[in-house]
Amino acid sequence: MGAENTATVCEGSIEKKVDRRLPIGPAWKRKFCVLDGEALRFYGGSSSKREGRCHRTLPLCHIKKVVKIHEEGSTNTRYFNVETEQGETMMFRCKERIGWVAQIQIQLIHYKNRQDIIRYKQLNNSILATEGAMQRLRSSSLNHDVTSNHVIEGRSRGCRRVELPNHRNSGTGIGITVIPLSDGKIVVNRVLDGGPAMRLGGINPRDQIVAANGLRVTSVEMLSEVVRDSPESVTLLIKPRICKSPSPVPDDPKALLHKDMENKPEYINTDDRTSLEKGFLRRSSRERSSPRHFKFF
């Protein structure tokens, strides 16, 4: 970056101590120095500065610190050192009434402040971008959840709404038990005698429960939670009974019995089906007490 692109803070002639291995020639060499908001620039003279021929540019980011050494009162000469981040130490002296040490320190502070502001803006922008991405992800996830969980009645053709009072204190709940099918659908297993579902009607065994209180029913546990969180009533979206189930009801003894009999060899007596049905009925009664069936209280 040239000096013409940055406002000049101060400029003047200074002398730089020359580091020589052999003590030949003068120990100090005159330079024309220009300080701006970006760097400390050295020219061979004022004419070189006008021509734009910079001998060396020392960026402010490379300056570690500026230290005043001493001042000669008799000659009014000020000595100071400039230390760089690369470990270089340069000694200067000047006789002009320019506070080079103070001016360089002030520009260093301004430069560091600008860098802090830039870093803060970059960090803030990255945080905002991250938050924006998270918000968009959250919104898309929320929209997906709303689309997948909330049921639009216009699209639920062939379904009917049934509002059942939730008699939790009486022990009957909404008066039904449910069971999941192999394809993930939740259907009514039994309608309890004397319960709200039987008194109001509209619900029969094998009816599919599509939604509860506007939420799509995806599992027995989810339906149980909705009913538990509804102290007064539960609104169900019911699809009429399914004639052909993906799989038979686990506690249907006759279906299990006939399927088992089809695989029996001929020499096994299959006439005594009464005892076999009793055995299946006993096993079915045990299965009804399993967690797959829920009675809502």
UniProtKB/TrEMBL annotation:
Gene3D superfamilies: 2.30.42.10, Pleckstrin-homology domain (PH domain)/Phosphotyrosine-binding domain (PTB) (2.30.29.30). It is found in: Cytoplasm. Keywords: Cytoplasm. The keyword Zinc does not apply. One of its GO terms (molecular function) is phosphatidylinositol phosphate binding. Pfam families: PDZ_6 (PF17820). One of its GO terms (cellular component) is cytoplasm. Residues 248-297 are annotated as: Disordered. The keyword Cytoplasm applies. Residues 161-242 form the PDZ domain. InterPro entries: PDZ, PDZ_6, PDZ_sf, PH-like_dom_sf, PH_domain, PHLA1/2/3. This is PDZ domain-containing protein.
